[in-house]
Design brief:
The protein is an alpha/beta fold and 231 residues long. The chain has helices spanning 28-44, 48-62, 65-73, 77-84, 96-103, 117-127, 150-159, 178-183, 220-228, and strands at residues 12-15, 108-112, 135-137, 167-171, 186-190, 215-217. The protein has a six-stranded parallel beta sheet with strand order 3-2-1-4-5-6, with no helix packed on it. Helix 1 (28-44) crosses helix 2 (48-62), helix 2 packs across helix 3 (65-73) and helix 5 (96-103) runs parallel beside helix 9 (220-228). The two termini are 24 Å apart. This is Pyrimidine 5'-nucleotidase.
Length: 231
């Protein structure tokens, strides 16, 4: 049996944003998901059910619905992002415990997201710990090629001078940890805590037993605090 990688050598902490830095049950992404459906419906002039099928098909095939819409239908990324991220962020509440845990980590803290910087800024402002992060690599920096594309991780590592063998990656989708693990990163899958209803596709909640997942947690604040204060 192969032992999971450790954190003693880690000097760069990489976090996904949505459903990772805030609880799944907030269902903030459900708002974005609905906006995406509206965009597809309006752009392709199809009914809601067909738009939903197209949206989820592109999500699975291209990594994001946006990439599918850009590739197959010539959609402008700026127009798409402006529309789908126009949501109500008020369900997000400050999370001082997580903020403190992130602040105590030794080394750089970066965000790697398929969303936009504007969305990142809005989320972090609500959570109350925007100042704890040293940089953001968003879908625009990725040249609109989303995770889990290998080239996106390589560009992120290059742009931010990250040594993957000295980095840890926190994600809510197991498939987005495949490439980071192969590159040498310590990987952590953040899952729902099981006490509240979450709106997710079944496949999005799979993978906690995958070989490329070193650790699984349903309490990111507690997990990070444990790294700063090991028992």
């Amino acid at each position: 049996m192969t032992l999971p990688r450790t954190f003693a050598h880690v000097d760069t902490w990489v976090f996904d944003l949505d459903n990772t830095l805030y609880p799944h049950h907030v269902n903030l992404w459900q708002q974005v998901d609905a906006r995406i459906g509206e965009f597809v419906c309006n752009w392709l002039n199809v009914g809601p059910d067909e738009a939903r099928n197209i949206q989820k098909d592109y999500y699975r095939r291209f990594g994001t619905t946006m990439r599918g819409m850009m590739t197959l239908h010539g959609v402008s990324a700026d127009d798409y992002l402006a529309y789908v991220h126009k949501i109500d962020h008020s369900p997000l509440e400050p999370n001082p415990a997580l903020g403190e845990a992130i602040a105590k980590l030794s080394g750089r803290k970066l965000i790697l997201t398929n969303g936009s910087v504007d969305h990142v800024d809005a989320v972090l402002a609500r959570l109350g710990f925007a100042s704890h992060f040293d940089g953001v690599f968003d879908i625009i920096a990725a040249e609109f090629e989303p995770k889990p594309a290998a080239q996106t991780y390589r560009k992120f590592l290059s742009d931010h001078s990250v040594d993957p063998t000295r980095a840890a990656m926190f994600e809510d989708l197991a498939r987005n940890l495949t490439v980071p693990h192969a590159l040498g990163m310590t990987t952590v899958l953040v899952v729902p805590d099981g006490t509240k209803e979450v709106v997710r596709e079944d496949w999005e909640l799979e993978g906690r037993d995958a070989a490329h997942v070193d650790y699984v947690t349903d309490d990111l604040a507690g997990f990070l605090a444990g790294l700063s204060h090991p028992t």
